[in-house]
Amino acid sequence: AEAAELRARLRAVRHTVLVLSGKGGVGKSTFSALLAHGLAADETKQVALLDIDICGPSIPKMMGLEGEQVHQSGSGWSPVYVEENLGVMSVGFLLSSPDDAVIWRGPKKNGLIKQFLRDVDWGEVDYLIVDTPPGTSDEHLSIVQYLSATHIDGAVIVTTPQEVSLQDVRKEINFCRKVKLPIIGVVENMSGFVCPKCKNESQIFPPTTGGAEKMCQNLNVSFLGKVPLDPQIGKSCDRGQSFLAEAPESPATLSYRNIIQRIEEYCEQHHLQEEKIM
């Protein structure tokens, strides 16, 4: 009955993409926010961003929606909209203050994730992007279990170049394989910094073991691309603006656009394969 409820609610969602990271602080929520903005730049597409980072919900701030409230109607909870074609849902909208700590055990977190999937009236959606907390614990198992009632196109894994981050990404890849979650690919974030004055590139996080690209070759996983550091990304996120719109000529924006295009191509191909099987 539960699976049927979830299927009924999510049947109008065409593609579902999970954004994962082994470590905190690698830019996963930033990537989720910019992936949503990038997809929604095509006004013909309807995009939804679901933040299941229950203890550290940063999506409301990054999307310029701090202080917004969730409204309930006969058809369920209504997402908070950034644009007409970009809706957001987060536990951040349910807190009385952005400084409130969410001190919950696993079952309560799982219950809220189920509620987000079952009770939010997403409507017709081309892409549902799910921003997850770091690691491979309760929230990840819950979202994979609940979404298995419908379908998941796959996961995008975000890392930084240094070995201490890649070590945890290998665990994340192993997790995906164990729970049969397809891996769309890996994104290397904060990959080099080009000085705006002298144009020299510095490796802030040196890839001592060859970085994400080498790891992907070794583990037979797609490498989606590198996103260089740009101080403007942090500023845009703090203001709740889209970096892609504010800095269209930045090398980081060009990297994002290429990565987003590759994710779209993967999802379309995955959709065609599923249709053939059915």
UniProtKB/TrEMBL annotation:
Subcellular location(s) of the protein: Cytoplasm; Nucleus
According to the UniProt entry, its GO molecular function terms are:
4 iron, 4 sulfur cluster binding; ATP binding; ATP-dependent FeS chaperone activity; metal ion binding
* Gene Ontology CC terms, in alphabetical order: cytosol; nucleus
The protein's UniProt keywords, in alphabetical order, are: 4Fe-4S, ATP-binding, Cytoplasm, Iron, Iron-sulfur, Metal-binding, Nucleotide-binding
Q: Read off the Gene3D superfamilies from this record.
A: P-loop containing nucleotide triphosphate hydrolases
Protein's UniProt keywords contain ATP-binding: yes
Q: Which GO terms describe its biological process?
A: iron-sulfur cluster assembly
Show the Pfam families listed in the entry.
ParA
Keyword Acetylation appears in the UniProt entry: no
Q: Which residues form the AAA+ ATPase domain?
A: 14-185
Where does the secretion signal sit in this chain? none
Summary of the function given for this chain in its UniProt record = Component of the cytosolic iron-sulfur (Fe/S) protein assembly (CIA) machinery. Required for maturation of extramitochondrial Fe-S proteins. The NUBP1-NUBP2 heterotetramer forms a Fe-S scaffold complex, mediating the de novo assembly of an Fe-S cluster and its transfer to target apoproteins. Implicated in the regulation of centrosome duplication. Negatively regulates cilium formation and structure.
Kindly provide the name given to this protein in its UniProt entry: NUBP1 factor
User: Origin organism of this chain?
Assistant: Polioptila caerulea (Blue-grey gnatcatcher)
Its gene is Nubp1
